[in-house]
Amino acid sequence: MLKRLLNLFTSGAKDSSKESSIRNSDGATLIPRDQHSISRKNISPAAIKIIKQLEEAGFAAYLVGGGVRDLLLGNHPKDFDVATNAKPEEVKRIFRSARIVGRRFQIVHVRMGREVIEVTTFRGHHEESSSVRSEDGMLLRDNVYGTLETDAMRRDFTVNALYYTLKDFSVIDYCNGMEDLKQRTLRIIGDPATRYKEDPVRILRALRFAAKLGFNLEPKTAKPIRELSGLLLNVSDARLFEEVLKLFLGGSATATFNLMREYDLLAHLFPGTDIALKAGDEIGANLIEQCMINTDKRIRSDKTVTPAFIYAALLWPALQQQFTLLSSQMTPTQAWAQAAQNVINQQLTRTAVPKRFLIPMREIWDLQQRLPSRLGMRALRTLDHPRFRAAYDFLLMREAAGEALDGLGVWWTNYQTANDEEREQMVKDIGKHGGTKAAGKPRRRRGPRKPKTDAAPGGNE
Ligand code: ATP
Ligand code: MG
């Protein structure tokens, strides 16, 4: 990978984009095959087949987006996107497996074997008649078609607007994306404020790509983010949930979360947590950070991560704050249940959280209350709970974040490997010192401790 990266920066590509690249009459720069590092063998055969078939049917088709960007950076692309002048219906006629999706922007999903390739028709200038905007400038419907050039201008960032053609294997660059790639700069195309207003999700994409690629946000691209991030409220909660997942499941959750805090985005996406962190909940901030570090580690080693665990951590500071607030008015059990419900209700006003994640998230939380109660058969019953593993990982994370829990994590670590006799003894031993400390007791603070485990957000290895 490093070699490929060096290739891009040191081979002919260094100055040659100026020397040997060709400027087209429409303002595009063509970077010939020997001046860039994309090799056809790294492109998904499905994407190649689709491009070829579109070309055979008389259409133009290019590889675009993250696939081109990541190949140029020597990274492994997550997926491949194709841009074409064929209209969605025309694409559908060529590929039997094609499905038109999306209302705001029509996209065609073409399935080839196990892969799904997104095929989009060149977008046109949206000043034209058939695009519909809201009062805030958000594009509500936009299926105006155009040329390769207008398509490039309509993409989000310059490094995402590079096209690769199989005709002569060159890269076509309308927005100086190649130079930004070399400078490791994330620059939005066009007027930043207008582009964020058209689609506020671009704000999240800016932070996600900056974090994932380790790029600097170009100052004009960064400037309007704080002021405009409130527009995220206009985005549908389902789309926001999907985008939030992408923020944390792309392998750079830690860097992304730090950028989100820097740009004050939590206020819009996780308002309860934002309030708790701004009130100085350091343990809560440590816990989230710990969760992000573990998530990134797990993704790097191809382990599963579950959104329920990530959400459990992201909303934990809000839960703690609510719980403290309600504890003076009701029993700990009632306060816990009410606090959890309040936090969930508040969260659902911002991002959707599907039930399949909400339920395990609640279980992870509720088990935090049960883990300290180990007398009699309680420990055994807790161990049997389907969500035990995730809850145990969560407990270790709380301790690593600096919460003082009287060695509860070590106790559970030992309990899992102990035999029946040892388990009985362990329970008797706590009996001597009480052992029913509720999770709901006021938290004692101590300094953060290095985590003992990286077995977090999956919860079931
Ligand atoms: P990755 O797939 O690695 O997350 P990507 O850049 O391919 O990154 P996709 O969401 O797959 O991101 O989108 C493909 C391409 O479509 C982008 O590279 C960009 O050119 C364009 N695009 C996607 N979302 C937007 C948007 N909200 N506004 C403008 N262009 C967009
Ligand atoms: Mg992509």
Q: What this model shows, in words?
A:
The chain has 24 helices and 15 strands. The protein is elongated. Helix content is about 50%, strand content about 10%. It is of the alpha+beta class. Bound molecules: adenosine-5'-triphosphate and magnesium ion. The site of magnesium ion has 5 residues, from loops. Its EC number is 2.7.7.19. GO terms for molecular function: poly(A) RNA polymerase activity. Pfam families: PolyA_pol (PF01743), PolyA_pol_arg_C (PF12626), PolyA_pol_RNAbd (PF12627).
- The total count of helices amounts to 24
Low-confidence stretches: 1-18, 435-456
Rg, rounded, reads: 26 Å
* Beta-strand percentage range: 5-15%
Distance between the termini: 29 Å
Instruction: Give the helix level as a range of percent.
Output: 40-55%
Question: What structural class should be given to the helix and strand makeup?
Answer: alpha+beta
Q: How many strand units?
A: 15
Let me know the average pLDDT. Answer: 89
The main β sheet shows up as:
9 strands, mixed
- How would you write the strand order of the largest sheet? 1-2-11-10-3-4-7-6-5
Shape: elongated
Bound molecules: adenosine-5'-triphosphate, magnesium ion
Describe the structure concisely for a colleague:
By secondary structure, this protein is of the alpha+beta class. The chain contains 24 helices and 15 strands.
